[in-house]
Model the fold of this input.
Amino acid sequence: MDPLSEHQIRTSFVNCTKGEAARLKLPLDFTETPWEDLDFLGWVDPGAPLRAHLVRQSPDGTPLGITLRVPGTSRTSALKSSVCQICLTGHAASGVSLLVAPLAGARGREGNTVGIYVCADLACSLYLRGKRQPKLRAGRYEETLTLDEKIDRARTHLDAFTAKITG
Done:
């Protein structure tokens, strides 16, 4: 992913107001972001822990940001393990959260949303590249895909999710 400025990030959001985008807090370690290892920038808002944000680059290179709601309590607590729907990393149940995004435009203002089970820390890119490991491994899947194929698969999953939001 190409490095993004704070201004590019704040103006990229499609499913929140300009005021909400202006008030969101960037990751605490934003200046140390490992852009070369990211397929998207994702973080839980340090000023509003029930909000998360995700910014990715569209195929033409334009940043596309979405805001997400983080559940107050985990709905997967009865499960022993769960899998992220973007990167397919297996985690203990607490390592995956159902994040819900308002749809862009009028549909979102009417309260319509879409959800996805994703790594709770939104570090899918780092899990794919082996730069971060799940805290409690939940049955590691052996795959014959190359790293590039895994990255392409994760981007395809993210594309499908963001397409649902943008309509």
Observations:
- The longest strand covers residues 51-57.
- The radius of gyration is 15 Å.
